[in-house]
Structure formats: structure tokens, C-alpha cells
Specification:
InterPro entries: SWEET, SWEET_rpt. It is found in: Cell membrane; Golgi apparatus membrane. This is Sugar transporter SWEET1. This protein has 10 helices and no strands. By secondary structure, it is mainly α. It has one domain. The longest helix has 24 residues. The termini are far apart.
């Protein structure tokens, strides 16, 4: 980005409404809150020395998504994307390492195996670095941005599968209310920032999809509560 472009962008952002600027300050903080959400799960895994039936995909996808957002933020000179996702990358690596330490040898329902997840991450990170360093900046931004949307869609696969189970069992016990609310707030903030501040489709589109998924889960939580079965009573 040339100096005139940076100056024009700075002037445009200085004219933003105060509430949009506030969203820009809050969005990175809320993203870190969401990244911290699995800490209790990791404490449980460390305490019980087993991952039970938990999947590895949320943590490997967190690493992939955080890494691609850090690179994208670097290419776009967006500190508000780089900073929280750097934290997400570190936390995702910790979650992944903790999971690998306590997962059963030969487990293949994560989905796949831990080795497949590890190899996939190494290939993915190497590929992103090659794209970022070999393509022109504009092409790299466009390609990595669209790939980031795809990774976000993979991350949303888990909530979608959860909603299917909730509808089938008529119990929303599997939907963690505090985490879902945090995700909804996070998606609202980043949608506002993506549309009104950054004007970046690659930022606001996946967050609007995430917002829709989060709101759908809240509706299901309100409809079914924490009933253990279709004919059980609400807690």
C-alpha cells in the first residue's frame, strides 16, 4: 500500500462513527475471549488423562484459521487482525499439544488421526507461506482471503452438526450457552468492523455466516433447553 493510500485510509477511518470505532477496539478482545474458551476442556483433559470422545478438529482448525488470519492481517497491514490471531495461534498450538499428549494411540475418530492433522497443518502452513512470499501482494491477499473463508466454513461444520443432533434429540444440552453467546458477540463485532471499517468481504462474510449459526444455536437453546430427552423436563 502506497503512502497516499495509507493517508486516505487513515482519513476515512478517522471519520467513522464512535460506535464503529468502539467495535474495532472490542473485536480483537472478544476474539481472544473466544480463543480462551477451551481452557476448561484442556484442564479436564489434563486432569482425566484422556480426551474421551472429543474431536481434535476444533483445535487444528483454530491453528489453521489463526495462522491464515495473521498472514492476511500482515499483508493488509491490519494490526487488529494480527494481534488476536497471534494469541489464537499460540493457544491453538497449546490445545493441540495437550490433546495429542492424552489421545489414545491409533484413535481415528478426530476425524482422522493425530498424524493426519499434524501433517495437514504442516502442509497448510508451508503452502500459505509460499503463497504469501511468491505471489504479488494483491494476488496473495485475494487468494489467502478466500482460503480463509473456506477454513472458517470448516470451523462452522461443528456447530452445524451439533444443531442436527439437538433437533433430533430435542435437547440443547450439548450447546454451551456462555461460549455461544461469546461467539455471537464476536461475530457481530467483526461483521461491523468488516463492513463499516475495513470494507473487506473476506472479513465480514464468514463472520455473518458465523453470526447466523450462533443465533440459530441460541434459538434452539431457547426452544429445547437442557432436556436430556425429547420427553424430559427442562433443567
Amino acid at each position: 500500500m502506497s503512502e497516499p493510500d495509507i493517508y486516505v485510509e487513515a482519513v476515512m477511518r478517522s471519520d467513522l462513527p464512535a460506535w464503529v470505532t468502539a467495535c474495532g477496539h472490542l473485536a480483537p478482545l472478544m476474539a481472544i475471549v473466544v480463543f480462551l474458551a477451551p481452557i476448561p476442556t484442556m484442564q479436564q483433559i489434563n486432569r482425566e488423562k484422556t480426551v474421551g470422545g472429543k474431536p481434535l478438529l476444533p483445535y487444528s482448525s483454530m491453528i489453521a484459521n489463526s495462522f491464515i488470519c495473521v498472514v492476511y492481517g500482515f499483508l493488509k497491514s491490519e494490526p487488529k487482525m494480527m494481534a488476536p490471531n497471534s494469541v489464537g495461534l499460540l493457544l491453538g498450538s497449546y490445545y493441540f499439544t495437550t490433546f495429542r499428549r492424552h489421545v489414545s494411540i491409533g484413535a481415528a475418530n478426530l476425524p482422522g488421526t493425530t498424524s493426519q492433522h499434524w501433517n495437514g497443518l504442516v502442509i497448510f502452513i508451508t503452502f500459505i507461506l509460499l503463497v504469501a512470499t511468491t505471489l504479488t501482494k494483491d494476488l496473495a491477499v485475494e487468494f489467502i482471503g478466500k482460503l480463509g473463508i473456506l477454513i472458517c466454513m470448516i470451523m462452522f461444520a461443528s456447530p452445524l452438526s451439533t444443531m442436527k443432533v439437538v433437533i433430533e434429540t430435542k435437547s440443547a444440552d450439548s450447546i454451551p450457552l456462555p461460549f455461544t453467546i461469546a461467539c455471537v458477540i464476536n461475530c457481530v463485532l467483526w461483521s461491523v468492523v468488516g463492513v463499516l471499517d475495513m470494507n473487506d468481504f473476506n472479513v465480514y462474510f464468514p463472520n455473518l455466516v458465523g453470526l447466523a449459526a450462533g443465533l440459530a444455536q441460541l434459538v434452539l437453546k431457547g426452544l429445547y433447553g437442557n432436556r436430556k430427552s425429547s420427553d424430559g423436563e427442562n433443567d
